[in-house]
Amino acid sequence: MADLVASSDAAAAAAPAPVAAKKGKKAPAAEVPRFGRVKSNLKMGVLGLPNVGKSSLFNLLTEQAVAAENYPFCTIDPNESRCAVPDIRYDWLCDLWNPPSKYPAYLHITDIAGLIKGASEGAGLGNAFLSHIQAVDGLYHVIRAFDNPEVVHVEDTVDPVRDLNTIIHELCRKDLAYLETVKAKEQLEIKRDPKFKLPPLYFSLMEKMTKMLEDDVPLRSGEYNIEEVAKINQWIPNAITLKPMVYLVNLDARSFKRKGNKWLVPIQDWVNTHGGGTIIPFSVEWEQGLWAVRNDPAAKETYLGEVPGLKSVLPRIVKIGYNVLNLQYFFTCGDTEVRCWTIPAGATAPEAAGAIHSDFERGFIKAEVVAFQDFKDLCGGQKSMANIKAAGKYRQEGRNYVMQDGDIVHFMFNVTNAGKKK
Prior knowledge:
Layout: H1 9-13, E1 43-47, H2 54-62, E2 79-84, H3 88-97, E3 101-103, E4 106-111, H4 126-134, E5 138-144, H5 160-192, H6 200-214, H7 226-235, E6 245-250, H8 253-258, H9 264-272, E7 278-282, H10 284-292, H11 297-304, H12 314-324, E8 327-333, E9 337-344, H13 349-356, H14 358-362, E10 364-371, H15 372-378, H16 386-390, E11 395-397, E12 407-413
Parallel strand pairs: 1-4, 1-5, 3-9, 5-6, 6-7
Antiparallel strand pairs: 2-4, 8-9, 10-11, 10-12
């Protein structure tokens, strides 16, 4: 069966005229603008104090072996890698087509060296680390909630709430310095050009955000209207505390297996009063044990059988990170390749086509689309679209169609070369 990727110019030229999105199929309601970049190549950074398990988690997620030693600052330069986004839909499509090329969606991750108290003022390797945080789009905040005398804590004692306060204080101080820099540049522009005027919204927003940061309140926790969000993205695009954050609570294996720890409630209370966010308890210790027996089916079954129903949390960590970056993907499927293509949520069909090649977007004609679940329910285990078409589930969508996560798509396009100059 031909690959469901895109048709060549010749095929597209013979295709029917573009078909608009079906009547009655409404695009999702417009969302409030989000903070941060709207792109498909976004990154999550792994953040935390030294020796909380950041590099060990990074190694588990990306199947690498970067330094994860028992001393502060064993990570200095950020390590960057990617990990596949687990998806049973993708696995099912690969099993059906069994192509020689299989390409899942990937989450790009950066392992950022540990912050300490005073980092915003240059303590430790602070300023360099904070600039690394500015370079990512979302954050995994790893919090240590396990006691182990063999693993040194930078503050000598384990206290996750204290550590959370330390990190948020340093991030807010860095953003406060960033705001002062932005305001100084605007004042300089006013001096250079007396006609240059800043809108009243600029001053009210800057005052509001300055007060929040002085009180160690992350900017993402504020209440803003649509216009304010757009202006914040314009005026302070590199603010750290605007980035979405996922809190990863690193437990000892015993606490993870019994699903309890004395720090979980205090951590939940702290997060609820500091802008909210997803909290995922996990255990590097337990995950490393599972990783060690990954190639021994009997040993793996025994390991997982110690606590019925217990399983790795790493797939959920990856999925949540992908989602907080507001990413999604569509599938192209065929005998030669099954592939996930990452796009920002809310992307239109031509924008999605551009993820494959710029010519697909430039010469977009239409997208032939079927929802994954419709295809799975109706295909009868066959690669053919005949049953899907017969059921009226194989749609032709125009350039205003907003892509849905998990769409299976075949793009039609036609690009003609510009005429040569005489």
